[in-house]
Design goal:
mainly alpha, DNA polymerase, domain 1, hpI Integrase, Chain A, 3-stranded antiparallel beta sheet, 14 helices
Amino acid sequence: MQGYFRKRGSTWSFTIDIGIDPKTGKRKQKTCSGFRTKKDAQLEAAKLQQELSQGTFISEKDTKFKDFVKEWLREYENTVKVSTVRVREHESGRLLSYFGGLKLKQITKKMYQDLLYDLFEKGYALNTISGIHSTGRMIFKKAIELELIKNDPTQYAKIPRAIKTVEEIESEKEIVKYLEKEELALFLTTAKKQGLDRDYEIFLTLAYSGVRVGELCALMWKDISFNDHTVTITKTYYNPRNIVRDYQILPPKTRNSKRIIDLDPAVLKELEKLKIRQSEIKMLNRNTYYDEGFVFAKTGKYLGYPEFIKTIQNRMTRLLKLSGLNYKLTPHSLRHTHTSLLAEAGVGIHEIMERLGHVEDDITKRVYLHVTKAMKTEASKKFGELMRYL
């Protein structure tokens, strides 16, 4: 082995040849220090020598974690939607608060695991910790790929989980809340009689189609076929800062989110009325109307711009309170409501998934199974009653 060992103070170090620099032709050396005994230094040197002979040696770089994260994000943003980049920026920010001042190679498995424990102890939600961990794994995987480090500190890391009580486990069995048939009818009646401008059309469409609220805000008149009684979903609305002119129209959530949905004639009838009213507003404001063809376009100061998701959420809360219903429900609850009513009508789970634009979704399945289980129980009960009168 070409190299030497040296003792400085109470610790040992070694220097070993690791090859020839192709640019200068001179030999390259690597020094490792901080070993308690000479034997420890010799064992590490032997391990390094074995890596060199097997061609598995990686000369770790001095890249700082914060610099690499910036570089990784720059490359990552060219491969995904802007909304996904925003999530990764937020999650990598959490990692930077722990590792920002360190080099990539200084971050150990223990340090990374301690980060996950610390997030857990601070009360972060499991989904939040999982997202941060997912981003961390992506960052270090890329660093390994680029041979900046040789060990992945995220490998074998585990997300801490609280030990649940019996009560908590039993409460998990509760179904996701949605509106029952009679409640939905009351909610829509309230929207029609006491709703603000466009409330009835908005919530009628959400309830009867099961579309996501972002998909609803992105709907354009060209997406609706009054002849075929369908709406085509190909995009979603994105505006995290709620600045009217800063909105973006993005591809839908997943590949399966692109779909064509049959619409009930009652919904189409209301949308036709809305289109006529909108045309009148455009005529009166032809010089200022933002005419991009949005179905649920603003009618106040910013005529024609797509409605905020937040505005729809606030309006739904208002109507739920007026109806005496659970005001904590959200527009997304109408997707669960749509699922429950389709299940009650006898539509199969695969057809429902296709209509909602899902491949797999646990909540949709839970709603479906909850409803169909009740239907099966009722069927069994009716059969029993029938047989008792024979």
